[in-house]
Amino acid sequence: MDGTTRHALSFDAAADVYERSRPGYPDPVVDWLLAGRPRDVLDLGAGTGKLTRSLVGRAEHVTAVDPSPRMLDQLRQVVPGVTALVGTAEAIPLPDASVDAVVVAQAWHWVDPARAVPEVARVLRPGGVLGLVWNTRDESVPWVRALGALLAADAAGRGATAEEHVPPTTLGAVESMTHRWSQPVDRERLHALVLSRSYVITASDERRRQLLAQVDGLLGEDPALAGPPPWPLPYVTQAWRVLRP
Ligand SMILES: C[S@@+](CC[C@H](N)C(=O)[O-])C[C@H]1O[C@@H](n2cnc3c(N)ncnc32)[C@H](O)[C@@H]1O
Fold first, then answer.
1. Which residue has the least CA distance to atom 9 on ligand 1?
2. Domain limits at 57?
3. How far, in Å, from the CA of 13 to the mean position of ligand 1?
4. Which own/partner pairs from 112-120 qualify as long-range (CB within 8 Å, at least 24 positions apart)?
5. How many Å apart are CA 123 and CA 130, to the nearest integer?
């Protein structure tokens, strides 16, 4: 198994901490991604359903696909009533022309676009939309930048960098939008956020302990975190949609 595959599969071991810590997606971004009211929508790389829960009520039928059975177990508990299937972007377990929208949150950088784009094109109906979205911590804020620097030491290029946010241009016209917002966090949630990173999941116990101690150091030092929690953790959400002719 190569390093990328090992990291992609690592989410399976951290489904619980992932669900407790990761942010969801703001309503204006979800509405924009869907480009209307789709009848059938596919959440690809759905994980524990952080985006899926916002799709329910915005489409008649929601299908969630992810390679990790444990992420999908969490999803079924949190978002009952959706069809949750084990599968990948490179082999989507749905028939041809069966959905009006495919949305991929925080996961397109894990897929092989050479195989995933034809699969998305196969399952999308004419006039359908592919929506891609990433939440990125806003590192213009000093303590958030310091947190990012702690995590970057282990990331070794496997986080979703801005360079990896590349929508496919072969499918149709590409549009983008940016939305700024904050997630309230406390110490426990920041710890869980660190522990939910794919490269931290695969690190040694000793390294994980060190990282959490460094996060605690940050909490003791930065004036923005001096007051009682919750503290606002600012995010920049970047979204792309590709409208199929
Ligand atoms: C960072 S998580 C994002 C989960 C969820 N969409 C969210 O926004 O919280 C990345 C997800 O991509 C999934 N994944 C990894 N490789 C994939 C692939 N080739 N096709 C589809 N999903 C994949 C992982 O199992 C994981 O659930």
1. 50
2. 3-137+160-182+234-243
3. 13
4. 113/166, 113/168, 115/89, 115/90, 116/89, 116/90, 117/168, 117/170, 117/171, 119/89, 119/90, 119/91, 119/92, 120/44, 120/89, 120/92, 120/168, 120/171
5. 11
Q: E strand or H helix at 143, and its extent?
A: helix 142-155
Instruction: Report if residue 229 sits inside a domain.
Output: no
pLDDT tens digits for range 56-92:
999 999 999 999 999 999 999 999 999 999 999 999 9
> Is residue 198 domain-resident?
no
Answer whether residue 77 is part of any domain: yes
Of 2, 11, 198, best ligand 1 pocket probe by most atoms within 8 Å of the beta carbon: 11
The reply to whether 143 falls in a domain is no
Interval between CA 202 and ligand 1 midpoint (Å): 16
**225, 107 in Cβ contact below 8 A?**
no
pLDDT in tens, 143-172: 999 999 888 766 554 455 666 777 888 999
Could you tell me the distance, in angstroms and rounded to a whole number, from the CA of residue 50 to the centre of ligand 1?
Answer: 11
CATH number assigned to the domain comprising residue 132: 3.40.50.150
pLDDT digits (tens, 9 = 90+) for 47-66: 999 999 999 999 999 999 99
Query: Which residue ranges have their beta carbon within 6 Å of ligand 1?
Result: 8, 11, 22, 44-47, 50-51, 66-68, 71, 88-90, 105-107, 110-111
Q: Which residue has the higher pLDDT, 10 or 217?
A: 217
Best of 20, 72, 106, 109 for a ligand 1 pocket test (most atoms within 8 Å of beta carbon) = 106
Number of domains in the chain: 1
Ligand 1 nearest-atom number relative to CA 66: 22
